[in-house]
């Protein structure tokens, strides 16, 4: 309730104005006003959220779903030789990501194509190397005992190349009924080039020895033959010996090869060390030196390549 006097022009009170209002009505009006405000806020918020979600759905969620789906189909598309198709126009990082995925699909196809070609080429080379390995192994004597009718000596040899094919080789053959030639050699390098050089060296050495040349003469002749047109700079170390199986006397020439080991009378092996001659196919007009040795009953000689001396175990020992 509120009361207020009313004054005339002379300043004298002539009346009283009174007002009486209902408090519950006022509170009800305030509540209704606040209720309108709250519902208005909720309505505006709902509309704003709907619009925002619509934008997020259109520009983020839907493009990401499309990107995930197309990415999941990428492998199947590659197998079907069908390029991935992603149409996303958002003008932001998601569109850049979609373009990157399309680029990755193209790069992946190109990589797989190149990888398939490289794999096919490797398989072809592997097959050729396998054939070359068998051919190379077939060129070396592999039947033991090699001369069943020769009771004066025993002989055995083996080769285990580090790669499919290599440059190491051995050889032995009867020069005549009383003399046997032994060859142990190592071509520089590995792989097909070394194998080809090995074949040439092996044939040239055998041809010269069977023509009656001594070990030193043989290496000198082969050295000259291999140097002719040898633009690759390849060379071969050779230990070549001819042994008279009647007397046990041998003559050897060593062209930069490993020292042989000799066992006398069934005891232990000892290295036979002497000054080497240069490797074959390194210097022109070399006079190779020879070394004589004697093998008596029970003696044994062991020759090898650096594959033995350079081999290591798991502890690099």
Low-confidence stretches: none
Shape: rod-shaped
Strand order of the largest sheet: 3-4-5-6-9
Count of helices?
Answer: 6
Which structural category fits the helices and strands?
Answer: alpha+beta
Quote the average pLDDT.
Answer: 88
| Oligomeric state, counting identical vs distinct chains | single chain
Strand content: 15-25%
Order of helices and strands: EEHHHEEHHEEEEEEH
Tell me the distance between the termini: 112 Å
- Helicity, as a percent range: 40-55%
Number of strands: 10
Radius of gyration, in Å, reads: 49 Å
Largest sheet: 5 strands, antiparallel
In short:
The chain has about 325 residues and is an alpha+beta fold. The chain is about 45% helix and about 20% strand. The strands form three sheets. Strands 3-4-5-6-9 form a five-stranded antiparallel β-sheet. A three-stranded antiparallel β-sheet has the order 8-7-10, with no helix packed on it. The chain has a two-stranded antiparallel ribbon with strand order 1-2.
List key phrases describing it:
317 residues, five-stranded antiparallel β-sheet, three-stranded antiparallel β-sheet, alpha+beta
Task: Write a structural description.
The protein is of the alpha+beta class and 317 residues long. The protein is built from 6 helices and 10 strands, in the order ββαααββααββββββα. The strands form 3 sheets. It has a 5-stranded antiparallel β-sheet with strand order 3-4-5-6-9. A 3-stranded antiparallel β-sheet has the order 8-7-10, with no helix packed on it. A hairpin with a 4-residue loop joins β5 and β6 (249-255). The chain is rod-shaped. The protein starts with a strand and ends in an 8-residue tail after the last helix.
């Amino acid at each position: 309730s509120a009361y207020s006097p009313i004054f005339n022009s002379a300043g004298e009170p002539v009346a009283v104005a009174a007002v009486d209002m209902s408090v519950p009505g006022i509170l009800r009006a305030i509540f209704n006003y606040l209720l309108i405000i709250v519902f208005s806020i909720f309505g505006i918020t709902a509309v704003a959220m709907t619009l925002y979600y619509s934008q997020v759905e259109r520009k983020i969620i839907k493009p990401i779903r499309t990107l995930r789906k197309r990415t999941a189909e990428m492998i199947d598309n590659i197998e079907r030789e069908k390029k991935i198709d992603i149409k996303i126009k958002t003008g932001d990082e998601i569109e850049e990501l979609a373009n990157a995925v399309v680029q990755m699909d193209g790069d992946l196809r190109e990589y797989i194509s190149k990888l398939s070609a490289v794999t096919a080429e490797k398989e072809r080379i592997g097959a050729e190397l396998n054939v070359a390995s068998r051919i190379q192994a077939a060129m070396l004597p592999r039947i033991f005992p090699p001369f069943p009718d020769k009771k004066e000596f025993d002989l055995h040899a083996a080769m285990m190349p580090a790669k499919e094919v290599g440059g190491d080789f051995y050889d032995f053959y009867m020069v005549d009924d009383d003399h046997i030639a032994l060859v142990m050699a190592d071509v520089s390098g590995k792989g097909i080039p070394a194998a080809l050089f090995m074949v040439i060296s092996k044939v040239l050495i055998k041809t010269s020895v069977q023509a009656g040349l001594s070990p030193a003469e043989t290496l000198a002749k082969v050295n000259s033959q291999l140097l002719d047109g040898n633009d690759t700079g390849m060379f071969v170390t050779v230990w070549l010996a001819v042994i008279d199986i009647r007397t046990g006397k041998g003559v050897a020439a060593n062209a930069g090869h490993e020292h042989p080991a000799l066992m006398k009378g069934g005891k232990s092996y000892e290295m036979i060390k002497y000054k080497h001659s240069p490797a074959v196919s390194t210097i022109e007009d070399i006079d190779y030196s020879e070394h004589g040795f004697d093998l008596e009953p029970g003696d044994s000689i062991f020759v090898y390549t650096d594959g033995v001396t350079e081999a290591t175990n798991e502890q690099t020992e």
